[in-house]
Amino acid sequence: MKAVRIHQYGGPEVLSLEDVQRPTPGPDEVLIKVHAASVNPFDWKVRQGYLQQFLPMTLPLTLGWDFSGTVEAVGAGVTQFKRGNEVYASQDVTKGGAYAEYTIAKESDVALKPKSLDHIHAAGIPVAGVTAWQALFHTANLRAGQRILIHAAAGGVGVFAVQFAKAKGAFVIGTASGKNQAFLRELGVDEAIDYEKARFEDVAHDVDVVLDTIGGEVQERSWKVLKKGGILVSITDPPNMEQAAKYGVRAAIHRGHPGAADLTEIAELVDSDRVKTVVDTVLPLAEARRAQELSAHGHVRGKIVLRVA
User: Fold this and answer.
1) Which of 12, 181, 260, 264 is the most buried (most CB within 10 A)?
2) Looking at residue 58, what DSSP letter applies?
3) CATH top-level class for 2-125+277-307?
4) pTM (2 decimals)?
5) What is the DSSP letter of 10?
6) What is the CATH number of domain 128-253?
């Protein structure tokens, strides 16, 4: 089979489309024929070697951590899936393998894909969607009637966070560039902030939850918009707990992890037309280098997806 791998850390040039042995599923594993794989910032950060001190990975490594496809075979002990099932999943963070014609996933990480979506759009959900879902509902415990500020609301995680928060009944404030203001309204944002024209801390106030998808000085400026007892959840930089205490708020870092139960709930929202996926760019597997360059450049509206089959 074809797979995009790296044999060393470095720039986009280390990505290599190669012929490799098709994997065989072990106990409690599922072999999936990949139709489409998502491209996330995590992918190129791994490729660059930024995460090697924190995540043990063995080279050569097939990149890619979420995908949509059909079940090809199942290992011993698998009871929930059979050959031909259309599924989507995110994978073990230390293994990867989605930039390939076939990949292996744990049964516990796989869910039936939304019936209303093709594989291209389904592939864009797992990593970004589950990250947003877990940050909002597992970590922040977002509830109906609360106010949430979502940074980079037009980005991969932001697009889902906006829609999940609205489905929960929250009041959503979102930041984005001027060109994405109308897009935020389409997603359901109640108050859209153009960060090119205004500082969000001069507009947002009495916020229950801040979802920080950017980090750095944006995170530092976010403390003052929170009400007492509110929470800042970051998916990038670990928050400064001293600052949180100073403002009388809570803070947490959230690292998304695979979750079939979360994917199943998300699929139900998608199929009930309460959540849509937004795909910015579709490229063939052979153009994984270009896809990662686009991701690293930033300012993508929604997701970048590789078409595999």
Assistant:
1) 260
2) P
3) alpha beta
4) 0.94
5) -
6) 3.40.50.720
